[in-house]
Write a sequence for this structure.
């Protein structure tokens, strides 16, 4: 192996409390591809800043091979001192670097270079910062969350660009697919120390789990040995005899070793507060259209979403993902078309920008709404401090203003608030931003067990593949198409010559294709048709559903009268019973209509 061109040795750093880094090590050779992983708050970004020379450690050694060039991409680049984007990028060039490459990279990233940095979006600022560090083609690239705020086309372009560079890479990212595609070695920061695996990220998680299991076994053995030696010590005077003083000192050493062991960081404990059951049909969109300045954003969009569906929405920034979500959830009125939302929907949203967080509000008040010190989660009352601990916040952070939280902490807070609200329809806009890999695992498991419906906007390909059952992607000129399965399934279906797509997510991977159905037993029995009874039901059920929906609204309005319960208990009970019965009738009618619609589509496809 080539000698290292960057070495960090025995790095210690503390910010006044417990040490963040204790004897951390890092070495990178020319052309090496390394990823830096660990829990939020473990010191990944801090170690990268030390490697970049941005901050100094309390103790330890940093060595850089003379003549080695290093470029560092921070999580939040600052462009405020520059008049144009091009000036910002060119300021990162060294004498002798190719100035034309800076302009070329900006053009490939969709930026002209003349933009005012103060007017850039988060994604545009990230692309400008990438151009600044890529343009010089340095010997070492240090990238801290380079995919944040990038859309999928930009992420895939960045992967290809980095694969062609000769630079050594050290990358921090929560994007599993990005790390798997680029890394050849992994450095894990855990409890202040670093451990190296000379394999890419794809092999890391199994190795990490093995390591932690082995440590747990060793810790258990140490605990039993201490217990046995302590029992010997308490038996009497034999422990104080001179010939046994060595054994007593060994026991004291064991106790010191156990105290010195830093426990593994706790796990986020996620529980979702479920609302009442929604109707079988959650969304029915017919011919939805939306344009801005005669530019179509959504055109002739049709979709039926049954309860329990987990829909992923992907596409480049500016394609209209947020507009589509707002149309599908009734927050935005379409220019044309119709939308019907199912019965009993309780929506809870997690917004991408964390814009609903008041920076002056304390962490405790953000979770309780400023009322008391308890939070209701999954039907159970919890003290706010206990709920904070579930999401890895310390008790002393209860009075911390939200403006002082890190990006990862803000992400965990938004999840904690969203999951505490009763819901049967979760709308998640980029929920993976700033979350560490372990928290992403737990969020994935929670969504897999969630009995309601999920609408997920994300650029994280691995997360989409693990979570969603259908993927909606733009097809140009305002058209959006639904594909069965996750992101990889969508890419594969688009690559198939003549592949058909359907704007109904009811079709699942493994279901027979239309051509397969033609050659099956049904085809051999002749072409089936809808019965007269089925056709009549298809024609009459929409009117019945509309009437039931109106009846439910009337009953709810009656029950909302403040004096009904006190003045006429019998009428209140009768209205409540009628509401329950009518909601059940509506759910049954929607289920019957949805089943007949799917059958009609299947038969028409034969």
């Amino acid at each position: 192996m080539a000698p290292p061109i960057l070495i960090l040795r025995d790095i210690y750093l503390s910010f006044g409390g417990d040490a963040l880094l204790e004897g951390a090590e890092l070495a990178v050779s020319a052309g090496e591809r390394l990823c830096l992983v660990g829990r939020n708050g473990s010191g990944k970004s801090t170690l990268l800043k030390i490697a970049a020379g941005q901050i100094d450690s309390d103790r330890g050694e940093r060595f850089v091979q003379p003549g080695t060039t290093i470029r560092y991409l921070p999580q939040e680049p600052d462009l405020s001192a520059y008049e144009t984007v091009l000036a910002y990028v060119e300021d990162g060039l060294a004498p002798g670097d190719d100035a034309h490459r800076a302009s070329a990279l900006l053009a490939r990233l969709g930026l002209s270079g003349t933009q005012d940095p103060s007017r850039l979006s988060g994604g545009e600022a990230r692309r400008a910062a990438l151009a600044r560090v890529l343009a010089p083609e340095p010997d070492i690239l240090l990238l801290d969350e380079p995919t944040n705020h990038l859309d999928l086309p930009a992420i895939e372009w960045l992967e290809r660009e980095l694969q062609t560079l000769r630079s050594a890479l050290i990358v921090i990212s929560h994007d599993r697919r990005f790390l798997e595609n680029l890394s050849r070695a992994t450095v894990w920061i855990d409890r202040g120390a670093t451990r190296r695996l000379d394999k890419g990220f794809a092999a890391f998680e199994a190795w990490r789990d093995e390591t932690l299991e082995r440590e747990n076994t060793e810790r258990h053995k140490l605990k039993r040995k201490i217990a046995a030696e302590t029992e010997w010590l308490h038996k009497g005077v034999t422990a104080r005899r001179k010939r046994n003083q060595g054994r007593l000192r060994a026991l004291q050493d064991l106790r010191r070793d156990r105290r010195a062991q830093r426990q593994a960081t706790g796990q986020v404990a996620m529980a979702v507060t479920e609302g009442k059951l929604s109707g079988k049909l959650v969304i029915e969109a017919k011919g939805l259209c939306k344009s801005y300045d005669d530019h179509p954003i959504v055109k002739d969009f049709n979709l039926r979403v049954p309860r329990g569906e987990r829909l992923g929405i992907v596409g480049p920034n500016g394609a209209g993902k947020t507009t589509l979500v707002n149309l599908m959830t009734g927050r935005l009125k379409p220019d044309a078309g119709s939308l019907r939302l199912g019965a009993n929907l309780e929506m809870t949203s997690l917004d991408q920008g964390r814009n609903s967080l008041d920076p002056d509000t304390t962490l405790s008040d953000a979770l309780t709404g400023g009322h008391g010190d308890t939070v209701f989660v999954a039907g159970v009352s919890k003290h706010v401090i206990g709920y904070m601990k579930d999401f890895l916040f310390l008790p002393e952070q209860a009075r911390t203003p939200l403006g002082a939280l890190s990006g990862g902490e803000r992400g965990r807070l938004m999840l904690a608030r969203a999951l505490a609200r009763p819901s049967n329809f979760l709308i998640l806009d980029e929920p993976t931003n700033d979350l560490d890999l372990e928290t992403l695992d737990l969020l994935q498991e929670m969504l897999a067990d969630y009995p309601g419906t999920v609408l997920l906007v994300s650029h994280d390909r691995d997360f989409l593949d693990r979570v969603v059952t259908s993927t909606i992607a733009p097809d140009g000129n305002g058209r959006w198409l639904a594909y069965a399965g996750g992101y990889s399934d969508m890419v594969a279906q688009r690559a198939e010559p003549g592949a058909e797509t359907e704007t109904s997510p009811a079709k699942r991977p493994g279901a027979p294709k239309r051509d397969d159905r033609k050659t099956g037993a049904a085809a051999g029995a002749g072409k089936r048709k809808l019965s007269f009874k089925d056709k009549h039901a298809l024609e009459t059920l929409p009117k019945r559903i509309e009437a039931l929906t109106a009846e439910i609204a009337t009953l709810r309005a009656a029950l909302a009268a403040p004096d009904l319960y006190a003045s006429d208990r019998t009428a209140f009970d009768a209205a409540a019973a009628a509401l329950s019965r009518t909601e059940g009738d509506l759910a049954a009618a929607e289920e019957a209509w949805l089943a007949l619609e799917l059958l009609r589509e299947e038969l028409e496809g034969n």
